[in-house]
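Hey, quick one: can you model this chain's 3D structure?
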Amino acid sequence: MTVGALVVDVLAQNQEPAGPEFGKASPLGLALVIVLLVATALLIWSMNKQLRKLPETFQPEHPEPDQAVDDGTLAAPKGAETTAAPKNAEAKSANGAPKSGETKPEQERPEPDAGN
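Sure thing. Here's the predicted structure for all 116 residues.
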């Protein structure tokens, strides 16, 4: 018997409700449903109220101070210790790559061994 035939047989049966408790819902169930609906309505109302307080856009009106911090162009605060870089050290960005406009020097590579 296939699944489709089984579904048709189950749906085609004459299923009349039985038992003395059929159709008698508790008033407590109705109260619970009403309380849940009221709570949902209050949550939606509160969420809409909070969403109205949000700005139209999160883009700052004057992004220059943020960009200066992102670019690392701000001077070190007074009293902050700075370590002097060696004279032959290259200027590198935070991730170790050369700053824009500078080329990375070629590193010397050892000669491959012919015996291996």
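One thing worth noting: Residues 27-52 form one domain.
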